[in-house]
Amino acid sequence: MDKQRRKFLKMAGATALAGISAPAVVKLTSSPALASSGHGAPAEHGAAEEGHMAPAHGTEEAPKGVRLGMVIDMRKLYGKPELMEKAIAACNKVHNIPQIDSKKSEIKWIWEMPFENVFPEHSSYHASKTREENDFLVLCNHCDNPPCVRVCPTKATFVNKENGIVAMDFHRCIGCRFCMMGCPYGARSFNWENPRPYIKEYNPDFPTRMRGVVEKCNFCGERLALGKEPACLEAVKESGAIVFGDLNDPESEIRKVLEKENTIQRKPSLGTKPSVFYIV
Amino acid sequence: MIEKVFKGNSRYWMWLAVLCAFIGVGAICYIRQFLFGLGLTGMGRDLSWGLYISQFTFLVGVAAGGLMLVLPYYIHNYKVFGRLTILGEFLAIASIIMCLMFIMADIGQPLRGLNMILHPTPNSMLFWDMVVLLGYLGLNVICGWVILTAERKQVKPPKWVYIFVYVSIPFAVSIHTVTAMLYCGLPGRHFWLSAITAPRFLASAFAAGPALIVVACLIMKRVANFDAGKEAISKLTTIIMYAALINAFFVLLEFFVGYYSNIPGHKHSLEYLFFGLEHNGHVYNNLVPFMWSSVLLCFGGLGLFAYMKIRKTGTDLMIGIGCVMIFVALWLDKGLGFVMGGLVVSPLEEITEYYPTANEIGITLGIWATGFLLVTLLYKIAIGVEHEVEA
């Protein structure tokens, strides 16, 4: 090899390497706000947000801004499985959730489960009859400190900075399913095959998904944007079993319920700080 | 040097043909999966990682195991490994390529793979895993090739390459540490949420990688007229013994934590893997025979080595059997038990057993065959150069 050619190859190699790694370098050094630009809604991707940094016992500071949460008053759902099914059906319909009849590949955003599955840390001997006979409503907890967001390698799942919703970008997801491993609540589903043939009633207002991506409850972010309430809440509105609102607003209905009633959260010991509360 | 792969006897070509047949089947299976989706695998909502990820985890260890040759030779100037280091480096290249193939086979949207680089995510361990894997691959390609070229020309390798050699040593540790961090940073998965995961991975890697190299050396001694030397093989078996013992010790520590603390979450996986997990009147135990085979093979292999060391005997066949036993034991432990055991109890306290489908096994065998093909070709080059220098 003559010197000229070797020199050229060196230059070409270095240029190519710089070209490949440039986006990585830029993204790693830029601020979170910059990193999320061009991504639709402004979003906080990092797991370590302000307000989470100093978890002193008892005096933890809640994240600032609007923080959406949900209270599920199970007392109003005991003995009324039809109400829960109504809420689930409403969600399925609004979000084009495929109805796949196999435990292996099913997709669910909100569903029913026995108490000891939902609250393994709270289960005990001699549980009450109501607890044993009734199923509990389960959905994504939209945690303050979501492990799914921490592990996602492409920021396909992220915390929406404006309202605390843990959202999914279906177009960004590469389908590694790491978020499903990270979620300690089993709230995430994966499209093992093309879901579209399994959609019973198509709703043109919400996108359908393609195979190979993860999906889950989004707290009806798309409906909130239009000033509507979450579909599950709307379906069981007359029962008052679901309360939804801003956890950071002391005047909100949800805060009043939380101040008055004793509530529990799922697996509190994991430190994920769920935004879904249960009155059991 | 590449031309060396085109010269070989009929047995060499037969071996390549067999591997290519497996690769062909694997490719067809992959096309099926690519067109239909991951629904063709045995994975599901509750058990969403399977054979692909567990093979990836195991092979990262095989790649890191090459360190046990590189470190004594370059750091401690242990000359006996002189003829072997290149084999360790080439094995690392093939293993990492297999790892990357397993990851590609496992993701639901393989065409979006570049999102990992276009949207780098420092909070995700998977991102760092990609970084260290690609880094280690690059380092081994550079070191292996440059040193082999120098050997062929019978000159000393250029000084700059030693920087890459030394950097590759922490990289070998990092690939397996970061892979362990994929697992041990997840809340709510007791079996994986253990600080000992990374050391356990490293111990098993430092046994599995060298074991494969010893087997390869013994085969090449018969078919390719390449002798690594008695002392080198003996030292390697010592390394394998220590590493396998430390790994077994770590597994026993997991048992202590689970059973002495008596916390159900810590016990479930071990119970499922070794004794069968009873739930609602049904006993889930499909991995029990595999895990006990792993135990027997591990201690059988260790016993065989111990016998050879004490009596100072041992034929190539005995050494080979010992290494195969240890390798298979570690594969069962890490390439099967570790991932499935951690997943068997879902976050919703349901139990799902995993059975890979034929299509999934086809792809897995295809990727393993690709790895063996790469190892064969790379070793052919290395030995070709060796013979050329001797001639």
Written account of the structure:
The complex is a heterodimer of chains A (280) and B (391). Chain A has 280 residues and is of the alpha+beta class. Chain A is globular, with a radius of gyration of 22 Å. Chain A has ten helices and nine strands. Chain B is an all-alpha fold. At the A-B interface, helix 1, helix 4, helix 6, helix 7 and strand 6 of A face helix 5 and helix 6 of B.
How much strand content do the residues of chain A show? 5-15%
Alpha carbon gyration radius of chain A: 22 Å
Q: What strand order characterises the main sheet of chain A? A: 8-1-9
Overall 3D shape of chain B: globular
N-to-C series of helices and strands of chain A: HHEHEHHEHEEHEEHHEHE
Low-confidence stretches of chain A: 19-59
Membrane topology (chain B): Multi-pass membrane protein
Keywords (chain B): Cell membrane, Membrane, Transmembrane, Transmembrane helix
InterPro entries (chain B): DsrP-like, NrfD-like
Pfam family, one (chain B): NrfD
Overview features:
heterodimer; A: 280 residues; alpha+beta; Alpha-Beta Plaits; 3-stranded mixed sheet; two-stranded antiparallel sheet; 9 strands; 29% helix; globular; B: 391 residues; mainly alpha; 13 helices; 2% strand; NrfD-like (chain B); Menaquinol oxidoreductase (chain B)
Brief description of this entry?
The complex is a heterodimer of chains A (280) and B (391). By secondary structure, chain A is α+β, with helices and mostly antiparallel strands.
List the topology elements.
The complex is a heterodimer of chains A (280) and B (391).
Chain A: H1 3-29, H2 32-35, E1 68-73, H3 81-94, E2 110-114, H4 115-118, H5 129-133, E3 135-139, H6 147-151, E4 157-159, E5 166-168, H7 178-182, E6 189-190, E7 214-215, H8 221-224, H9 231-235, E8 242-246, H10 253-260, E9 276-279
Parallel strand pairs in A: 1-9
Antiparallel strand pairs in A: 1-8, 2-3, 4-5, 6-7
Chain B: H1 10-36, H2 51-65, H3 67-74, H4 85-106, H5 115-118, H6 125-153, H7 160-184, H8 197-223, H9 230-261, H10 264-274, E1 277-279, E2 282-284, H11 288-311, H12 316-343, H13 358-390
Antiparallel strand pairs in B: 1-2
Helix pairs in contact in B: 1-13, 2-4, 2-7, 2-8, 2-12, 3-4, 3-7, 4-6, 4-13, 6-7, 6-13, 7-8, 8-9, 8-12, 9-10, 9-11, 10-12, 11-12
